[in-house]
Amino acid sequence: MIEMYKKVVFENYANFNGRARRKEYWLFVLVNAIIGYGLLFGLGIISEKLALLSSLYNLAVLIPSIAVGVRRMHDVGKSGWYIIFPIYNLVLACTEGEKGPNQYGTDPKNQLEELDEIGKE
């Protein structure tokens, strides 16, 4: 779980290209929520000024959050702009991605199968 989070935040910090599986997206959301609320409530008990660290953390992961959301929309075959539609983007985020390659890249779930097929040709 932590490895997936590191991959999204550090390796794909501002990568708006390609596709992101549901697992990658929802693990990122989960870890963000845990860290963000942990900082807010954990440090907020000690001092209100320390609770500002939660805001700084949320600001620091704003771009990776948007980037993983855009890649998630790409996985279901939609433009990244669909993340601005609140209810519809939630439905799309829960929808299984398109099987096989689409206009945004290869299927992240079945990359090994696609590589095997390319090798056979």
Overview of the molecule:
The protein has one domain. It has 121 residues and is mainly α. The model has no long low-confidence stretch (mean pLDDT 84). 64% of the residues lie in helices and 0% in strands. Helix 1 crosses helix 2 (22-46) and helix 2 runs antiparallel to helix 4.
Work out the count of structural domains: 1
**Major β-sheet annotation:** none
The CA-CA distance between the termini, in Å, is 35 Å
Secondary-structure class: mainly alpha
Instruction: Give the ordered list of helices and strands.
Output: HHHHHH
Helix percent reads 55-70%
* Count of individual beta strands: 0
Mean pLDDT value? 84
Based on CA atoms alone, the radius of gyration comes out at 17 Å
Q: Spans with pLDDT under 50 lasting ≥5 residues?
A: none
Write a brief caption for the model.
By secondary structure, this protein is mainly α.
Write the SSE topology.
Layout: H1 2-11, H2 22-46, H3 52-60, H4 62-75, H5 86-94, H6 111-120
Helix pairs in contact: 1-2, 2-3, 2-4
Summary tags:
single chain; 121 residues; mainly alpha; 6 helices; 0% strand; elongated
